[in-house]
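Database export, one record per block. Field names are fixed; values are copied verbatim from the stored entry.
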Amino acid sequence: MTINTNNKTIEMSKKFAAAAKKFGTEEYKQLQEVRRDYPNFKVVTITRKTSSKKENYKGLTYEYMEKYIAAHDDEKKSIMAEYEMMRATSEEAKAALAEPVSYYEMKVWFLKKFPEIAEFHKKREAALAA
């Protein structure tokens, strides 16, 4: 919670506001105390703006990765073997009862293996922004 004296507002996050709605919670008590100290201030819920610089890889699913790897793998199918190991779908991973890595880790690995995909997404975002 923030007291903005310039705008005469009491600002709080969505999460804090949700907790403050419940009578008796610590957030409720804090809000009531601030309202007593600043009776003429308006209470507002603020949302943080997300960065537009975040790269968007919409459509970069496991299915897409598998199709792309199949189309661009080497003769030994070593990239697909590495993919299956990380996804815990290879025979070796199954025998070891291995857990798959997270989607984020898979995405980072895939984009390092195939930087042309990241480049394509950047070009597409630029075209959409124009």
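Remark 1: Helices lie at 14-20, 26-37, 62-72, 78-86, 91-95, 103-113, 115-129.
Remark 2: The longest helix spans residues 115-129.
End of record.
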